[in-house]
Amino acid sequence: MSAVSLTKIVKRFGEYTAVHPMSLDIAQGSFITLLGPSGCGKTTTLRMIAGLLDPSEGEIAINGRRVNDVPIHKRNLGLVFQNYALFPHKTVAENVAFGLNYRNVGKEEARRKVAAALDLVQLPDVGGRYPKQLSGGQQQRIALARAIVIEPDVLLLDEPLSALDANLREDMRVELKRIQQRIGVTTIFVTHDQTEALAMSDQIIVMSEGRVEQVGAPEAVYNTPATEFVAQFLGASNILPAQCTTVSGNELALELPDFPRFAIPRERGPDISQSGPVRLVIRAEKLHLMPAGTSADGILSVAATVENVDYQGQSARYFLRVGDQHLQAINMIEDHPFTTGAQVVLRFRAKDCAALPLE
Ligand code: ADP
Ligand code: MG
Q1: Which SUPFAM superfamilies match (predicted)?
Q2: Do residues 156 and 27 share a domain?
Q3: Are residues 82 and 208 in the same domain?
Q4: Tens of pLDDT along 85-130?
Q5: How many structural domains compose the chain?
């Protein structure tokens, strides 16, 4: 039985449709992420699951039980939002105990559960303090402790890390995942940050303009984007017009202006069924710059000119021209620091390319 199951849920605000029919089954104990740019409907979807918003259409089930008419406090969910929302005039322990007070948990048992939750978020000694005496990261851990102390069926997290600064955010990412695995709670995480989604999720649901673009494991959505939107949103991709000349059982043969002919594995273009115009997708970090004249020894290569370099510390983003086409590459800066005007060879592997049908 799915932990959460959405069947064709829709949300309209007046004339505007924020979420188009969306269906989804979320496995017990999994960590799934709704990923997409601001305004794509992530929070709206989460709020419908939480019971903070009524869907305009469709059904929501939690552990097999239809919950459309079940109010929020009877859905047994843990909620954490971006801005911790702790009660300022309650102590940390009172904050964490809040959800237990509704559940007829005895005083002694409540104290034990609060202590265990504070242990789990690695803040065992702050129960007597007030939220404003804690750092942002600590407050967010308390918000998490408050959400999990009730042993929720599902944990709903709406951009819980985005108010934290970059280093702390990375630490909390690891921490949150550790806690989720430890207690095994089904978790729905919302973020617009693709690195967060890739690092934490069992499954990613990529959304755009109220629709699901792709559902899959991080490697799958990253390596085999189903749409141009997914290819661009999960890191920088080059998308080039190409001709598919032959479709065979295990390969797609491709032709691009100024490139050598090459073939990609069949599974890298699952939606291509016949020869004709297609779009070739290759990620910026899969194009490797080498000095002009470097021999190709079996690896695909194409001559390019460096038009611009965006230095990023460990790596650089190169703006390149191949014939009339503009491409981007992101490379670690190792032995070959290329500068504007340099003639280079771009090396890439066929298995790192994907093909999409024309839209
Ligand atoms: P996200 O969380 O992905 O940034 P939201 O789910 O908050 O996006 O919003 C999706 C769209 O629905 C946005 O265009 C937003 O302006 C709109 N929207 C959200 N809530 C309301 C509301 N209460 N009334 C009208 N429009 C809303
Ligand atoms: Mg949001």
Answers
A1: MOP-like (SSF50331), P-loop containing nucleoside triphosphate hydrolases (SSF52540)
A2: yes
A3: yes
A4: 899 999 999 999 998 988 888 999 999 999 999 999 999 999 999 9
A5: 2
CATH number at residue 10: 3.40.50.300
Among protein residues, the one whose CA lies closest to atom 1 of ligand 1: 39
What is the dihedral angle through the alpha carbons of 6, 7, 12, 15, rounded to the nearest 10 degrees?
150
**pTM of the entire predicted model:** 0.90
Spatial contact of 37 and 209, defined as CB atoms under 8 Å apart: no
Residues 6+ apart with CB under 8 A from 268: 224, 252, 351, 353, 354, 355
Interface ipTM: 0.98
Out of 228, 246, 276, pick the residue that ends a domain.
228
State how far the Cα of 301 lies from the Cα of 238, in Å rounded to an integer.
15
Asked whether the beta carbons of 153 and 29 are under 8 A apart, the reply is no
Do 10 and 149 belong together in one domain? yes
Q: Give residue-wise pLDDT tens across range 157-214.
A: 999 998 888 888 998 899 999 999 999 999 999 999 999 999 999 999 999 999 999 9
CA 18 to ligand 1 centroid distance, Å: 6
